[in-house]
Amino acid sequence: MTKYIFITGGVVSSLGKGIIAASLGRLLRARGFSVINQKFDPYINVDPGTMSPFQHGEVFVTDDGAETDLDLGHYERFTDTSLGKYNNVTSGSVYQHVIKKERRGDYLGATVQVIPHITNEIKSRINGATKQFKPDFQLIEIGGTVGDIESLPFVEAIRQFKAEAGIGNAISIHCTLLPYLSTSGELKTKPSQHSVNVLRSYGIQPEILVCRTTRPIPKTEREKLALFCSVPKEAVIECRDMKSIYEVPLALETQNMAKVVLDMLRVEDRKADLKAWEQLVERIKNPKKTVKVAIAGKYTKLSDAYISVVESLKHAGYANDCAIDIKWINSEDCIDGKECKKLLSDVQAVVVPGGFGVRGIEGKLNVIKYARENNLPFLGLCLGMQCAVIEYARNVAGLKGANSAEFDEHAEYPVIDLMLEQKNVQGYGGTMRLGAYDCVLKKASKAYKAYGKEKISERHRHRYEVNNEYLQQIADAGLVFSGMSPDGMLAEVVELPKLDWFVACQFHPEFKSRPDKPHPLFKGLIDAAIKGK
Ligand code: GLN
Prior knowledge:
alpha/beta; Rossmann fold; 2 domains; 7-stranded parallel β-sheet; 18 helices; globular; binds glutamine
């Protein structure tokens, strides 16, 4: 029988609830339990696929092609479990479904209301994920802060769900912040008390408190929190700021958080095997070298916009006892070769990540040209690959007017064009080529060597592709198309074999990297960067 753990947040947003939920997931996985995480987002968008990365950070893509919240990336990386479309639920998707049913006449004339229709739909999303995965534990995080108007239906659904599940089958964890007042030298508990009171006013008594803090919680404050918030003392968990997010599971384990959770859910504790994770954290904390890697994109002001790329680079570093120093480069600043030299001469590798729209494209092309001409290890992701093809077409294959139809509908040589199946697609949101597709790698290519196999599966999110009309001409000029879709119709990987590492892919490898299992293409990049240094 699945046991349920709900995670809410109070006092402020951005507490890192996602990391806490993911870390608890890791602790349960380390005990041999199966775990899935779910994220409930109270906004009205049906999914974050249409939201600006500046607003919402990265859109994380699952194997089954859902465009989801970036917290799903944390869940997958921490628990090493592949999630899917049931794992991210938004108010928009809940309302969309209920309204569709209403229009179909499913409610037989009833007045459709938040309670019970919306809350029932939310509960059915919880049960739907249980049915699909049949996990031992299901961890459900509610986005936003308790007290927000828009999260009320979710909080109410949790209240109902907990009551229906019965004691010992569902618990809730409330995450709060303990502010430190330097004038009095104290960590203050009052905002947490108030936040728990808000939660109680909705009928939910949290069983566990996780308190974000910059310093240790003194015994008296712990006791105060336990007393005022009605939780056992051992259920007041301290979560200090850490250098690396991957330290969080270990910090929670030293406070027996998983054991407290298991006791409350009436499950016998098991021995945790955290050895590999501890070794990982040792490596993270004691790097023997550092490489500097540039990310040349357009959402560089918000690092969350490329969070999986950043994590993947770090993972590849961990495997080499190497710290990664990221240099953010706004591709719009890369106006010519001279600027590129100035910006890139102190880095050992460069990544051109995915993106949409024409802004910053010429700069990305300049960056790629610089990498190609100076043998600077380069990895292109999705749009980054499309740019690598345009750059090669223009500057090597003699197709001067080469461009993507995304940026110039009337390009002289549209070497990147809308995919055939995209030509009649209308509307946005879930309409791109999304999710896992197979790709076949050419033997003896760099990509093949990195993966160590011919057939791979990777996640996609794009509308445009290499135009096959120009493929031969570009290949004749020396760009190797080393990965193709199994039917040979879509270019998936390109590379330049003579350079140390010049590889670009149409898919998003960053979604499948794990801290203890770096992705082969990122590993290849960082290996080359270290060697080059
Ligand atoms: N804009 C490009 C496309 O739609 C690339 C997308 C991406 O980088 N995710 O094909």
